[in-house]
């Protein structure tokens, strides 16, 4: 049995086949994606890397249903994206995909609770259920004590955690993160990556774009793009950490201190 037959058809979160994206700029054509085929299984943690202009954002926009391919096919959880209407696409973006951006994209005047609740309001969920889900998502990112704070009352790392809670609130099939640590110092960036590691360990599928090798090192698969094509696609085999090393070493220190 080879690796291909081990993967059951329904274990794929997303499947792209020969995806081409061409932008027309006046009389010129820009070939942003030139035939990308890619399967991402459920619970994969994938980093997309590549030089500026290689097509990373375009690929993320296609995967996130923000843009449609010029040709080729894309299916998300077995549903063909090309067949969907604009309102179906909007619903998929809201319910099935959690977006995390470099710039957090929070609503400044809304507190943490309302920022996280927003996708559920768009989704038409009743108030009582919204409250339970919103509080749970905020607890998952460790901000239960900041529920009523506004974004400008939080640190950069806390703001990104709010954005992660908002991305999680519908329990999406996929988290898409475009340079999620790009606006954070490296220590805060590490905290955010540890959080993504924990979500991955809890079963979440994650695709992230990054320029940094040490950020990509959190993923178990790295796809490099070049000139709109996949240049390499490598998996690393490493066991999922049960506890982050820092916690283990703290526990050791406590034991030693006794
Ligand atoms: P990356 O995110 O890797 O820097 P992009 O996906 O943003 O790359 O861009 C890939 C190519 O497509 C670039 O040459 C870029 O200029 C072009 N491109 C991206 N978006 C558009 C657009 N909306 N209109 C025209 N050209 C675009
Ligand atoms: Mg980009």
Key structural traits:
alpha/beta, single chain, 258 residues, 10 strands, binds adenosine-5'-diphosphate, 9 helices, binds magnesium ion, four-stranded antiparallel β-sheet, globular
Detailed description of the structure:
With 258 residues, this protein is of the alpha/beta class. 36% of the residues lie in helices and 27% in strands. It has a six-stranded mixed β-sheet, sandwiched between helices. A hairpin with a 2-residue loop joins strand 9 and strand 10. Helix 4 packs across helix 5. The chain is globular, with a radius of gyration of 19 Å. The relative contact order is 0.17. The site of magnesium ion has 2 residues, from helix 2.
Condensed summary:
It contains nine helices and ten strands. The chain is of the alpha/beta class. A hairpin with a 2-residue loop joins strand 9 and strand 10.
**Mean pLDDT, all residues:** 90
How many strands? 10
Question: If strands are numbered along the chain, what order do they take across the biggest sheet?
Answer: 6-7-8-3-9-10
Helix content: 25-40%
The secondary-structure class comes to alpha/beta
Strand percent estimate: 25-35%
Distance from first to last alpha carbon: 52 Å
Write the layout of secondary structure elements.
Blueprint: H1 3-6, E1 12-25, E2 28-41, E3 45-49, H2 56-63, E4 71-76, E5 79-80, H3 86-95, E6 97-101, H4 112-122, H5 127-140, H6 156-168, E7 174-178, H7 186-201, E8 205-209, H8 213-216, E9 221-226, E10 229-235, H9 245-257
Bound molecules: adenosine-5'-diphosphate and magnesium ion.
Magnesium ion is lined by residues 56-57.
């Amino acid at each position: 049995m080879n690796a291909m037959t081990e993967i059951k058809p329904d274990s794929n979160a997303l499947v792209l086949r020969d995806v081409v994206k061409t932008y027309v700029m006046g009389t010129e054509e820009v070939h942003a994606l030139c035939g990308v085929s890619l399967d991402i299984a459920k619970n994969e943690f994938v980093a997309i890397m590549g030089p500026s202009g290689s097509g990373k954002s375009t690929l993320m926009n296609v995967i996130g249903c923000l843009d449609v391919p010029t040709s080729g096919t894309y299916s998300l959880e077995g549903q063909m994206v090309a067949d969907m209407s604009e309102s179906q696409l909007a619903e998929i973006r809201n319910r099935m995909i959690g977006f995390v951006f470099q710039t957090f994209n929070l609503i400044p005047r809304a507190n943490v609770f309302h920022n996280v609740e927003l996708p559920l309001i768009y989704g038409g969920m009743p108030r009582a259920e919204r409250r339970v889900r919103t509080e749970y998502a905020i607890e998952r990112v460790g901000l239960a004590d900041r529920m009523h704070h506004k974004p400008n009352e939080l640190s950069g790392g806390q703001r990104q955690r709010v954005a992660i809670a908002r991305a999680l609130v519908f329990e999406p099939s996929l988290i898409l993160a475009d340079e999620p640590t790009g606006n954070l110092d490296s220590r805060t960036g590490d905290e955010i990556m540890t959080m993504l590691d924990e979500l991955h360990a809890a079963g979440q599928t994650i695709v992230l774009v990054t320029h940094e090798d040490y950020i990509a090192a959190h993923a178990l698969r790295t796809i490099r793009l070049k000139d709109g094509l996949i240049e390499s696609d490598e998996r690393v085999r490493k066991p999922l950490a049960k506890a982050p090393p820092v916690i283990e070493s703290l526990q050791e220190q406590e034991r030693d201190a006794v």
